[in-house]
Amino acid sequence: MLKVTKALVTMALILACVASVDAADKGAKKKKGNKQQAVKIQALNLPETIELTAEQKEKIEGLKKEYTPQFATLQKKNRDILTDDQVKARREAMKQAKEAGKKGKELRDAVSASLNLSDDQEKQMKEVTTETRKLNGEVKGKVEALLTADQLAKIKKPAKAGKKKKKNS
To answer: 137 to each of 43, 127, 160, how far by Cα in Å?
Structure first.
C-alpha cells in the first residue's frame, strides 16, 4: 500500500511539473508573438467624425488586406537597417522627446540625432521612407476615391489660423 501511495504522489508531482513547464512555454510563445508591432497604415487612419457606410468599410478592409504585407515589408526593412544599440537609443530618445513635449519635426529630429547613423544607413533609411510615402500616397488616393465630398471635407484640414509667417522688414 505504501508503494502505491508513493507511486501516486510521484506521478502527481511529475504531472504538476510538466503542466507548469507547458504553461510557461505557451506563455513564452505568446510573449514572443506580441513583440512584433502591428502594421499601421497612416492613410487608413480616418477621423472618428467620418461615418462610413457598410460598403465603404468593406472596401477599406480590402485595402488593409491588400497593403498590409507591403507596409510590413517596409517596416521590417526599416528595423533591419538599425543595430540593436541604435534601436534602444531610438526608443529612449523617443520616450525623452515625448516627455519633453516635442512633436512632429522637432521630435523626429531629436530621435534622428540620437541614432548616429552611418552614411549608408542614412541612404537606406531615406529609400525606405520614400517607398513608404509613395505607398501611403497610393493608399490615400484609393481611400479618397471611396469617400463622398462631405467625408473628404472632414479629412482636409484647414490652414492653421494665426500662424502666418512674419516678413523681415
So the answer is: 7, 15, 23
